[in-house]
């Protein structure tokens, strides 16, 4: 990721975490069971998946507790405060990445690729948060949390890590972007999402 200044991945990760937090906090009380761009999952399940993935990244780095359920088989049930688990997961992820040097050549990740350079691993973690923020926002009628500045580094890393993940069902097959696609549309299309979707 030569386009990134040293340590810039920290800003990308912070922005992606904030996007996910904002989208989840903006879900109306009656919208948790709405369908999302993730075909099999409703809003609650996407949130559970996103929480599990952040915990998995944190656990890979610092050896702490990982997700309590399979992020790829979310139950759709959250007892009590639906956002408490998200806040804890984002805090755990942020704390873990703070321990990582800007230019660490190998950082453990929960991805099939295993250890990755800090900037790739952190932006992979950010990619997961940001795209699920978009899923939740679209499903619940909120503005897209993705802008060009965030989408640009996410797309660079997506092109490095996503292909092996499709085999695990983590991402749908890519969609050909429209000729006039901007960075956000190109990212979403690459991740198998239709950028024209609205609530």
UniProtKB/TrEMBL annotation:
Transmembrane segments: none
Pfam families linked to this entry: MDMPI_N
Superkingdom: Bacteria
InterPro entries associated with the record: CHP03086, DinB/YfiT-like, Maleyloyr_isom, MDMPI_metal-binding
Residues in Mycothiol-dependent maleylpyruvate isomerase metal-binding domain copies: 13-137
Family annotation (NCBIfam families): maleylpyruvate isomerase family mycothiol-dependent enzyme (TIGR03083), TIGR03086 family metal-binding protein (TIGR03086)
Name under which the protein is recorded: Mycothiol-dependent maleylpyruvate isomerase metal-binding domain-containing protein
